[in-house]
């Protein structure tokens, strides 16, 4: 009779990488478009990593790039993927460190980090599946559901009436909060939009605003004070993402909590925000910081500082991480991502429920396969 607990001798046998482009039904614009810094968003590039083992386990992870960078992530992932063949998939920290050192000359943040993220996330998915647990429970969940808010219906390219209609649809679908974009070149328009949407939603629904880094310190303080009356859950990215000192000033000056961090691509950058008191809601993004392995380090820093957390985008991944965070947490709902996966996340009474499926609980759809532009396979028996 086999022992009830056996040491794993499993090894990675295959890696499949895919570059997939998700088209958006309607081009979207935030403040960066209105100020001429970017063009409207029409598609999102996803890097999928599918990892198989000799024992038959499979893990799926993804990273993504907006506007530019998707092909670069794919090429870099192809460079490092051969390092995985024959390696114990349980040694995730060791693998992450090895892959980071393989591209050390490119730095420890940015494109190389985000390419590695897809692999790291797939390894965590695989490890939780091996344990037959949802990732949240594998990490040690504090809750079975997390408050959620919708972002995809609140862009500056939409009229007030369209945003209100989208918000009502989201609330009727069970979402607990709505985030809208601000940062219009004319601040009066921002205030009018926020006032109209708060009036339409009433005081029971959480309302957040996101300036996408478009204000300077003086403007952020002035508009932030004008927004106080609307009882916002937070003001997001009021300043340049790397202006830790400026965000610290706002966090002290404003009653409304400050949220930022989605654009940062390393633990070190998040550490600076936290140590300088620059943020009330940390907003790490697992695909951007290098995967779940570094994300857990950011969670530990946030927990020690007593901060709330609202991870950016990637709800299929961040739901599990938010559920494993002891302090207050939100998860961001983007219905854009629905076509990529066969499964849907349950939303009810303002909260998103952690799926009972093992691992991250999602699988790549045939629709996503049809949008795939390039693939690369390493090893034998790739998914």
Structure in words:
- It is a single chain.
- The protein is an alpha/beta fold.
- It has helices at residues 31-34, 70-80, 92-102, 111-130, 135-139, 160-172, 187-201, 217-226, 244-253, 267-275, 286-289, 292-305, 315-323, 366-370, and strands spanning 12-28, 41-53, 58-66, 145-150, 177-181, 206-210, 234-236, 258-260, 281-282, 308-309, 331-333, 347-348, 351-353, 372-379.
- Strands 4, 5, 6, 7, 8, 9, 10, 11, 12 and 13 form a ten-stranded mixed β-sheet that branches.
End-to-end separation? 32 Å
The helix count comes to: 14
Report the count of strand segments.
14
Helix and strand pattern = EHEEHHHHEHEHEHEHEHEHHEHEEEHE
What fraction of residues sit in β-strands? 15-25%
Class inferred from helices and paired strands: alpha/beta
Return residue spans where pLDDT drops below 50 for at least 5 consecutive residues.
none
- What is the share of helical residues? 25-40%
Radius of gyration: 21 Å
Query: What is the makeup of the main sheet?
Result: 10 strands, mixed
Describe the structure concisely for a colleague.
With 383 residues, the chain is an alpha/beta fold. It has helices at residues 31-34, 70-80, 92-102, 111-130, 135-139, 160-172, 187-201, 217-226, 244-253, 267-275, 286-289, 292-305, 315-323, 366-370, and strands spanning 12-28, 41-53, 58-66, 145-150, 177-181, 206-210, 234-236, 258-260, 281-282, 308-309, 331-333, 347-348, 351-353, 372-379. The model has no long low-confidence stretch (mean pLDDT 92).
């Amino acid at each position: 009779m086999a022992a009830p607990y056996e040491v794993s001798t499993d090894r990675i046998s295959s890696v499949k990488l895919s570059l997939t482009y998700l088209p958006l039904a309607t081009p979207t614009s935030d403040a960066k478009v209105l100020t001429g810094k970017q063009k409207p968003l029409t598609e999102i590039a996803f890097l999928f990593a599918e990892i198989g083992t000799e024992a038959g386990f499979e893990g799926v992870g993804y990273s993504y790039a907006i506007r530019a960078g998707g092909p670069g992530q794919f090429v870099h992932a192809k460079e490092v993927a051969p390092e995985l063949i024959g390696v114990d998939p349980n040694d995730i920290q060791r693998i992450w460190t090895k892959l980071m050192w393989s591209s050390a000359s490119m730095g420890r943040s940015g494109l190389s980090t985000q390419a590695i993220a897809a692999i790291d996330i797939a390894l965590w998915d695989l490890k939780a599946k091996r344990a037959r647990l949802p990732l949240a429970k594998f990490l040690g969940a504090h809750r079975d559901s997390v408050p959620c808010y919708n972002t995809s219906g609140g862009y500056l390219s939409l009229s007030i009436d369209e945003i209100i209609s989208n918000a009502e649809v989201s609330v009727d679908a069970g979402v607990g909060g709505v985030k809208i974009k601000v940062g219009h070149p004319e601040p009066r328009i921002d205030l009018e939009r926020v006032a109209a949407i708060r009036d339409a939603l009433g005081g029971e629904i959480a309302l957040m605003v996101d300036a996408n880094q478009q204000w300077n310190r003086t403007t952020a303080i002035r508009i932030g004070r004008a927004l106080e009356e609307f009882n916002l859950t937070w003001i997001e990215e009021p300043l340049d993402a790397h202006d830790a000192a400026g965000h610290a000033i706002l966090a002290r000056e404003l009653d409304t909590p400050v949220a930022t961090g989605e654009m940062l691509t390393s633990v070190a950058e998040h550490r600076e925000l936290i140590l300088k008191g620059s943020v009330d809601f940390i907003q790490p993004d697992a695909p951007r910081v290098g995967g779940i392995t570094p994300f857990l380090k950011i969670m530990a820093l946030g927990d020690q500082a007593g901060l709330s957390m609202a991870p950016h985008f990637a709800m299929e991944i961040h739901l599990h991480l938010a559920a494993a965070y002891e302090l207050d947490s939100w998860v961001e709902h983007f219905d854009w991502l629905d076509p990529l996966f066969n499964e849907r996340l349950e939303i009810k009474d303002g909260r998103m429920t952690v799926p009972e499926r093992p691992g991250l609980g999602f699988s790549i759809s045939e629709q996503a396969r049809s949008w795939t532009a390039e693939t690369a396979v390493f090893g034998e028996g790739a998914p």
